[in-house]
Amino acid sequence: MTAGPAAFAQAPYPAKTISVIVSYPPGGDTDAIARMFADKLSQRLNQTVIIDNKPGAGGALGNNFVSRAPADGYTLLFTPNPFTTAPLVMKLSPSASYDVLHGFEPIVNTATQPLVLVANPAVGVKTLPDLIKLAKGGKQVTYASPGAGSPMHIVGEWLNKAADVKFTHVPYKGVGPSVTDVVAGHVDTAWVTFGAVRAYLENGRLVPLAIGDAQRSKLAPNVPTLVELGYKDVIVGSWNGFFAPKGTPAPVVKMLNENLNEILKQPEVAEKLAVFGALPAGGAADKLGKINSTDYTVMGKVIKDLGISAE
Q: Where on the tree of life does the source sit, at the highest rank (predicted)?
């Protein structure tokens, strides 16, 4: 009578549907990228992989849900890097809080998304030095971000301090509305990801001024970095990746890592990511762990020093 349960217990992973939690509403970049990976992973594992959207509290509710889920490989988290900074900029209730450094098993860093500072042409600048000169000359310069406490907000305030200027932050609820308003001229500039503004850069309705990453981006090789422009410590990018609950078996993490790395090698995946201004990443699971812990330390200090809050 014990053969059935014993056989079930030893069934090779994955023996049932895998749920990928996305802590944001359907329709955004994170959701779309997650659905692409879920489809590809389902094909490779010959098992159903579904997306379960659990938005709320800047992503914290879904992140918390995964941290409390069974560590069996059947509940995963796909998230962008506000995963790391949300607890640092938000006053989270116990029901929404989670342990960034010790509550999850990293699986793989799937992609990076360089941040770019863009300006409306009516501002009359072509470079970041021009914009800074304008601000120091007395013009009030505004910059949009997709939300208080976002990587775009962090890089904007960090640049303010490094350049000794005061670009006024205008937070929006998402990248889309911030792009709409900078194109319309309601705000002077915006920190965004490339995918959201590529068409506007190509038709001249927005002007690229600087990249937030340490190196120039393949997506816009002619746009200088903040490092090149003299702000050597101001480096903020965007990334996304997969995590599992702490204690998920190492063989399961290894299997998922290997399959997702193979998916990232597919040309159509790189093409799809480029639509969102993202570049394939990949690598060992501990690479994502190191990225997460480094961001927590470095961004945590910046957030504290500059008093950045999502309130």
A: Bacteria
